[in-house]
Design goal:
alpha+beta; Outer membrane lipoprotein wza fold like; wza like fold
Length: about 260
Amino acid sequence: MRLIYRILLLTVFGTAMLLQSCGINSNLMFKQAKGTAVNSDSIPLTPMEAYRISPDDKISFTLATNNGAQIIEGISGVSDEGLKNTTSTEYIVRSNGEVEVPVLGHVKIAGLTVEECEDKMIELFKKEYQDPFVQVKITNQRVIVFPGNGSDATVVQLTNTNTTLMEALALAGGITDRGKANTVKLMRRVGGVRKIYIIDLSTIDGLRYVDMIVQANDYIYVEPTPEIAKEIAEDVVPIVSILSGAVIIFTAINLLK
């Protein structure tokens, strides 16, 4: 009978260990297969192509006549008349790629760079204003930074179009104690496909990457150090307590026989 109890306990304990081990470090993302070659020389320090406006983007724009002379005159105090300023209002790019602009109505701008969008709006505004000057700004550009805890993430707004990798990490609070500075993964959409660049910031050689320009919708993922011992302890201790109680009960039963 005792042998049966022992076998039963070992079976239950082993099964529990296997089931619990499946959940260890399950929050880690974007794991890389061992032996995968990484070509760091291909990492672009500046975006290979200008950002193109996408559905759900938000834009604002400034419109002035006379090739923007009123803007300069307003700044210098000479005159502030004739300036049409709409920078305080945001316009959302709809799912069909169009944005509704005052006077112009629906304008398709998805797929255009900021410069191309400005040129298109200038041509359209020429029908209503003399020598229009247009400045367009995308107001919801951001990158998502995972600083190395495995599950925590920060959305960093790109108020500066030349935000660097180091600035983005700093705005997210820096690399955490658990983060691996030698495995920083930058994921960028290029030609409709996400490319992954692995950057090593753990040595002085990583200085050549800290000034690389991040781009809207980039993902920056600092790989966390696995906490195997801690998670095993957290998962197994409750089960061990239950099994210990079961052993005590089985032992008491045997003693009473």
